[in-house]
Amino acid sequence: MSIINIGVIGAGQISLGIAQAFATSGFQVILNEIDALTLDRGLQSISSSSARLNTKGSLTSNPT
Asked: 3-state DSSP call for residue 45?
């Protein structure tokens, strides 16, 4: 049995870090947040953080 999908409930700082870590590792992540504005801000935060890591060369195209 292998895990492919990860569900994260909430879009607070810790939850976003967990979601980003799993997504960076190649998992499909479903982020669930009751407040749409908080979810949008969280997704933007993950996007900008990932872009910074990519610019620094910290992300590779082949997750481990």
From this structure: helix
